[in-house]
Design goal:
Helix content of chain A: 10-25%
Shape of chain A: elongated
Number of helices of chain B: 13
Largest interface: A-B, 15 and 13 residues
Distance between the termini of chain A: 37 Å
Structural class of chain A: alpha/beta
Oligomer: heterodimer
Number of strands of chain A: 16
Strand content of chain B: 15-25%
Strand order of the largest sheet of chain B: 3-4-2-5-1-6-7-8
Order of helices and strands of chain B: EHEHHHEEHEHEHHEHHEHHH
Distance between the termini of chain B: 43 Å
Radius of gyration of chain A: 19 Å
Chain lengths: ~240, ~270
Amino acid sequence: MAAGNLVQGALFTVMVVRAGMLRDPALAAALARQVELSPRFFQNAPVVLDLKGAAGFAEMAEFDAARQELRARTLTLIGVQNAEPAQLAAAVAAGLASFAPSVTQPGRRAARPEPAAAEEPVVEPAPAAAARAAAMLVAEPVRSGVQIYARGTDLVVTAPVSPGAEIVADGNIHVYAPLRGRAMAGASGDGAARIFCSRFEAELVSIAGRYLVSEQLSPELRGLAVQIALDDDLLTITRI
Amino acid sequence: MAKVVVITSGKGGVGKTTTAAAFAAALALRGHRTVVIDFDVGLRNLDLIMGCERRVVFDFINVINGDANLNQALIRDKRNDNLFIFPTSQTRDKNALKREGVERVLSELRDQFDYIVCDSPAGIEHGAITALYFADSAVIVTNPEVSSVRDSDRIIGILASRSRRAERNEAPVEVNLLLTRYDPARVAKGEMLTVEDVKEILSIPLLGIIPESEAVLRASNTGTPVSFDAESAAGRAYLDAVARFLGEQREMRFTTPERRSFLRVLFGRA
């Protein structure tokens, strides 16, 4: 990008909240839990309202109400996605941006940060919501006793991670070799982070503070290619 | 210019001192001027294994402190003129290993020798770190069991991050694996890790496999480096390992259980 460009593209991590959840007490509980895990992440964090299948929201006032509701939880409503034409008109009138539908699986969990292109400058973005740096790449074996931390980004390891080694990332973790040590993704509270590995023999896996030790891991998955994600606050391990 | 080779493992009791003695002796047998240094200050053993304990006057710490010069402390092996032993102090502790002093002694030795073999103490504390700090090459002595493999892995990581070569961003320390106390019969029964298991976890080149052998205990009790005993399986395995270290191709031996012939059983020979 040439210097002096006044308009630049950037990627941000933005949380998406389904419109139907807004008045659901479960949202309050889910948010409270997330905020407790990483208060800084949610301080003034931007939110996109997902209107998929949502009735109403054809009036500007409804968006203002939603904005206040989220504001009360230290969240800032910045836009909508999956809006019907009438809803979009009302949202734009309320000063909200329109976001393209996200490519990840829609709303399996109440609140999950999703990467989305922000076309509007966000005033004072929360630190964790800032653009994610390029992923950290480690090509040497991670030996016992070594700790690697990919701050604010994803971690990609292309060599074995030994028992007694610890790999930590604020984003996702990919290991294209045997994972035998400990892996902790979403270390600063991103519950949407995942761990992927081509050979799963880990001592411990953790996402956003939820963890499983090898004793609790099902032996059938040992040695296989798996992904680990948080699903309704439960660590789930599936073959890939 | 001499090459500094550290014999290390993290874990104790895996055969570091036996290996340091046998490795140095094998290098000397191949015609290289070699000195083997005992870094295990306070637990002096190398002189016993080398059979020169009654000839120790000055030691490594005396030379570091400037109380004696190098030639007063070096002991020439009686069996091979290329081989020298540099004993350590039994009365001091590891804190006597001052890095600047070690550096000065090693640089003096570099002028006189082809190979400087450093026998590291166990652990990952000051003594072990000082022993590996100046290394150009490392032999990781590992037994086929999980705790030894894990400690070896730790030491390999330390070599990659805390050696002088790492600190100066030079070419990394060359790291090789030596599997010791390998008992093919127990491996076959699943009581020990296989060669493949260990190689897979440590993912470094394998220099050799030293079979568990009575010859090792016999050699250390008589103060003879086991590589001087070319009759024994362990002695031949060390000679093979050093040949590979020097760049030769040799087939791995002693990896399958030895078949005891009927006659051998009859005459009670191992």
